[in-house]
Amino acid sequence: MDSNTRAPVGVNRTGDRLLDSVVDLLETDGYDAVQLREVARRARTSLTTIYKRYATREELIVAAIEHWMTQNHSGLVAQPRDPDEPLHSAMMRVMRAIFDPWERHPAMLLAYFRVRTSASGGDLAFRSFDPVVAVGMAVLSDLDPDFVADLESILSSLVYGLAGRYREGHIAITDIMPTLDRTVFLLTTGYEASRRDEEARSTSRQV
Any idea where the domains of the chain sit in the sequence? Predict the structure, then answer.
């Protein structure tokens, strides 16, 4: 970093303390407990400092959730699927690594899906999952792009729906992964069966 653009001493520390304070409030008291005066008190900073960084409360919460996701997903490493590894197993290996922090911190899952509906959270999913996209694509890299697109659409809709059911108290947080597991199994086994049939037809035509 150029010396002329280096952040002032203490800025990163203040920012981390601010976001950590929001995460702590989200986990212990919930979304509605994130009030700026309480955040300022916990972070040992001022409302003026907060407003210099974030125009609204929702922007601050979005930043805190992104901060939390970066911390919890930064250890994911892209591991290409072994030629003998079933697609279902490979995908669930990635999905469990991604979802495990949510399952251990359900309040953050609720906050994530609540802030997604705010004006500041519209593209939260894309920005926050940037670190894990490469991990998922390493497993899906040899698949039909149309199938990958369909898979992403189906699974994202399913996760959103399951999170909503959890938020309403209809299912437990631990019910989400088994449902995803069953869905991924059905989708991937169907895809693999269709590829085998296509390869068999291609071989038959060549004979």
Answer: 11-69, 77-206
pLDDT at 141: 84
Q: CA torsion, points 30, 156, 91, 81, in degrees to nearest 10? A: -120
Structure-model confidence comparison of residues 112 and 8, the more confident one: 112
Q: List all residues 6 or more positions away from 72 whose beta carbon is below 8 Å from its beta carbon.
A: 101, 105
Q: What is the pLDDT of residue 11?
A: 45
Q: Which two structure tokens, joined as six digits, stand for 182?
A: 């069953």
Q: How far apart are CA 124 and CA 114, in angstroms?
A: 11
Per-residue pLDDT, averaged over 155-184, amounts to 92
* 13-35 average pLDDT score: 90
* Long-range Cβ pairs for the range 23-30 (8 Å, 24+): 23/64, 23/65, 23/67, 23/68, 23/108, 26/61, 26/64, 26/65, 26/107, 26/108, 26/111, 27/105, 27/107, 27/108, 28/107, 30/107, 30/110, 30/111
Of the options 3.90.550.10, 2.60.40.10, 2.30.40.10, 1.10.10.60, the CATH number for the domain spanning 11-69: 1.10.10.60
Cα 188 to Cα 86: distance, rounded to the nearest angstrom: 9
* pLDDT exceeds cutoff 50 at 6: no
- The Cα–Cα gap between 180 and 56 comes to 35
pTM across the whole model: 0.75
